[in-house]
Amino acid sequence: MKLAEALAERAAAARRVEQLRARVVSNARYQEGETPAENAAQLLAEADEVLATLEVLIRRINRTNATVEMGQDGTLTDALARRDVLRLRHSVVTAAADAAAGTGDRGYGRQLRSELVVLSALPVAELRAQADALAKEIREVDVRIQRTNWEVDLLD
After folding, report:
1. What pLDDT shows up at residue 109?
2. Cα–Cα–Cα angle for 146, 2, 143, nearest 5°?
3. pLDDT confidence of residue 100
4. Long-range contact list for 12-15, CB < 8 A, 24+ apart?
5. Is 10 helix (H, G, I), strand (E, B) or coil?
6. DSSP run (H or E) holding 54
7. Contact, 131 vs 94, CB < 8 A?
8. pLDDT of residue 123
9. Shortest CA distance to 65 belongs to which of 85, 88, 81?
10. In this structure, are residues 149 and 6 in contact, taking their beta carbons and an 8 Å threshold?
């Protein structure tokens, strides 16, 4: 099995656990004289089975990520960490540029010449350029990660 397939299975298992959790919660209590739509104990048992499978998948994925070398990016785990931090950095820079540009500041425009002028404390154009460069780097790292996911076999 390729790593990408295991990642898809992990996502499906996580969604299944969340669905089972919601069904357990909605059937955990019922009124006297009524019968629940589903057996909550059976749903819990099914969730436990899916969680056991999920744990095995996560262990294998993590083991694979930690051992696969990606050249300049280090291990796959290193590349994933790099991508996550780049995404956070992009979010911070974009938020700073939006705030400095006054994006979303409805009602704060000047109505009269006597009103105070609001000035930007940050260079918006430079922040936008920095955000664009970060977005490009995120895409490049992500492409390398995705390529590796489809080339690498999942470890046992």
Report:
1. 57
2. 5
3. 93
4. 13/50, 13/53, 13/54, 13/57, 14/54
5. helix
6. helix 40-67
7. yes
8. 94
9. 81
10. no
Say if CB 96 and CB 122 are below 8 A apart. Answer: yes
Q: What does the DSSP 8-state code read for residue 103?
A: T
Check: CB of residue 25 under 8 Å from CB of residue 58: no
CA distance 84 to 87: 5
124, 100 Cβ separation under 8 angstroms: yes
List the Cα angle 144/148/153 in 5-degree steps.
175
- On whether the CB atoms of residues 137 and 86 are closer than 8 A, the answer is yes
Query: Residue 144: what residue type?
Result: R
All residue ranges of the chain with pLDDT < 50 are none
Closest by CA position to 81, among listed 153, 145, 139, 2: 145
Residue type, 82: R
Distances (CA, A) of 57 to 47, 65, 132, 152, 154: 15, 12, 35, 15, 9
Tokens of 145: 């990660």
- Tens digit of pLDDT for each residue in 70-97? 999 999 999 999 999 999 999 999 999 9
pTM higher than the cut 0.85: no
Among residues 147, 146, 6, 139, the alpha carbon closest in space to that of 64 is found at 6
